[in-house]
């Protein structure tokens, strides 16, 4: 749904509203203001950093003028279509003379009263005269991520909580007050919403000691925290481990590196991992899938969009190599280098950081023998690639030899796949890595 992003409310006075910044994005966190109130700005000059579920983006000004007012503070959540800043053109009325303007507010909340015959302490009951909030069908309650987590911790359905904040936003106090009152049930006109409730302890307050430092959990770090909690408490995780003899692949890569470098490509091990995973996914398609909670259907993906975890100064992101099955080793290596560099520089687009069907997390380059990676929800599996070490191995003929060995960890969603399937899938990946000539036949 498109929104008008620049609205002239008085001659020379413009409200700039948060534009659509990605498919499915309905709100963004104000991570950092790049301009101050009273500051002159040029058209296309960045004014604010916004963090969405998919990426951090800089929002440029659509007009030259002076920033008369910033409507949000850092750490707050701004819905798409709401005013970000008030821009005053040169020669117009000063900001001090302007009233605070509420624009494009969400549809007015409707409160209905469910009248019961009397009060009850039973779960799901409603006291006589209790107000139950009814939002328009499909409208998501406005709330900050921390408030959503608190609601999950307390077992509260945010869709039923009346919001006292700006534009009906549900605050922490609203959730706590709702949880302290009688348990409310939705009236007949409010559809039941399938929700995976995290079985966690209630939120606790941490007392800081002398010299302790408090850092706001915001921006990318907060999004990572949300994603990890969502995945951990939605998909029942199981991790299976195995080891792979990488000796033959190490030799193949060493022979291929000079040719790749002559073409301007740095050939790492990751393109081989990606190709091995794709070959295994074609044998076991239920690992290239997602579970649709609303319809209770397993959706088998026919595209192979492979994500790879990339560490940045702000946290972990997952760039995506789209249609990786259609690309050669060198094409994958070239694409990875390009998107990884832009991701670390904060220049990757939201589309480049979303839509993966399977993810590989490679921590082996910095060490670590074992890891239990968390699934990149809504995917159903993730492969953890660990450190490669020279180890003494007993070969099939009974002799002892030094080999390049690596442990792999596959975390999978036990709702979709069972342990036997996971082991067979991991065996297939190992087979391709152990015998890279077989892998080359699949390219």
Describe the structure.
The protein is of the alpha+beta class and 443 residues long. The chain has 8 helices and 21 strands. The protein has a 6-stranded mixed sheet with strand order 12-21-20-19-15-18, covered by helices on one side. α1 packs parallel to α2, α5 crosses α6 and α5 packs across α7. The two termini are 41 Å apart.
Short description:
This protein is of the alpha+beta class.
Give the helix/strand layout.
Elements: E1 6-10, E2 13-17, E3 27-33, E4 40-41, E5 46-51, E6 56-60, E7 65-70, E8 77-79, E9 83-88, E10 110-114, E11 130-134, H1 145-154, H2 172-180, H3 219-232, E12 237-245, H4 247-262, H5 270-283, E13 289-292, E14 297-300, E15 306-308, E16 310-311, E17 316-317, E18 320-321, H6 329-344, E19 358-362, E20 381-394, E21 400-413, H7 419-434, H8 436-440
Parallel strand pairs: 15-19, 19-20
Antiparallel strand pairs: 1-2, 2-9, 3-5, 3-8, 4-7, 5-6, 7-9, 10-11, 12-21, 13-14, 15-18, 16-17, 20-21
Helix pairs in contact: 1-2, 5-6, 5-7
Count of helical regions: 8
Q: What class do helices, strands and sheet pairing give?
A: alpha+beta
Average pLDDT works out at 81
Ends apart, CA distance between termini: 41 Å
| SSE string, helices as H and strands as E | EEEEEEEEEEEHHHEHHEEEEEEHEEEHH
Q: How many individual β-strands?
A: 21
- Stretches where pLDDT falls below 50 for ≥5 residues? 94-132, 182-200
**Largest beta sheet: strand ordering:** 12-21-20-19-15-18
Computed over alpha carbons, the radius of gyration is 26 Å
Q: Please indicate the percent range of residues in DSSP E strands (runs of 2 or more).
A: 25-35%
The 3D shape can be described as: globular
Summarize the biggest pleated sheet: 6 strands, mixed
């Amino acid at each position: 749904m498109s929104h008008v992003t620049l609205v002239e409310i008085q001659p020379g006075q413009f409200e700039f509203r948060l534009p659509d910044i990605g498919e499915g994005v309905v709100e963004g966190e104000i991570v950092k203001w790049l301009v101050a109130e009273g500051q002159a700005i040029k058209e296309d000059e960045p004014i604010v950093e916004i963090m969405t579920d998919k990426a951090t983006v800089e929002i440029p000004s659509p007009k030259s003028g002076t920033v008369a007012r910033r409507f949000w503070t850092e750490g707050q959540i701004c819905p798409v279509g709401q005013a970000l800043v008030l821009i005053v053109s040169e020669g117009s009325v000063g900001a001090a003379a302007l009233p605070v303007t509420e624009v494009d507010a969400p549809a007015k909340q409707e409160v209905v009263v469910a009248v019961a015959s009397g009060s009850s302490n039973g779960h799901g009951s409603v006291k006589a005269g209790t107000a139950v909030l009814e939002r328009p069908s499909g409208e998501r309650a406005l709330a900050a991520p921390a408030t959503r987590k608190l609601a999950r911790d307390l077992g509260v359905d945010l869709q039923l909580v009346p919001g006292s904040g700006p534009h009906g936003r549900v605050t922490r106090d609203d959730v706590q007050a709702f949880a302290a009152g009688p348990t409310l049930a939705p009236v007949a006109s409010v559809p039941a919403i399938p929700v995976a409730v995290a079985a966690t302890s209630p939120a606790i307050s941490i007392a800081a000691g002398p010299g302790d430092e408090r850092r706001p959990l915001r921006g990318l770090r907060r999004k990572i925290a949300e994603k990890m909690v969502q995945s951990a408490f939605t998909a029942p995780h199981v991790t299976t481990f195995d080891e792979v003899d990488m000796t033959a692949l190490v030799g193949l890569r060493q022979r291929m590196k000079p040719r790749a470098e002559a073409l301007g490509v740095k050939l790492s091990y990751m393109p081989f991992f990606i190709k091995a995973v794709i070959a295994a996914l074609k044998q076991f398609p239920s690992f290239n899938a997602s579970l649709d909670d609303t319809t209770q259907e397993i959706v088998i993906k026919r595209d192979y969009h492979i994500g790879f975890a990339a560490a940045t100064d702000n946290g972990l992101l997952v760039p995506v190599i789209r249609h990786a099955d259609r690309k050669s080793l060198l094409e994958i290596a070239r694409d990875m280098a390009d998107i990884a560099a832009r991701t670390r520089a904060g220049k990757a687009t939201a589309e480049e950081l979303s839509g993966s069907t399977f993810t590989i997390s490679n921590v082996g380059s910095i060490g670590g023998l074992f890891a239990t990676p968390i699934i990149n929800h809504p995917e159903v599996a993730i492969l953890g690639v660990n450190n490669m070490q020279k180890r003494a191995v007993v070969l099939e003929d009974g002799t002892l030899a030094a080999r390049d060995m690596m442990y792999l960890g596959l975390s999978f969603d036990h709702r979709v796949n069972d342990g036997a399937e996971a082991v067979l899938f991991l065996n297939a990946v190992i087979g391709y890595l152990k015998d890279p000539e077989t892998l080359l036949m699949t390219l």
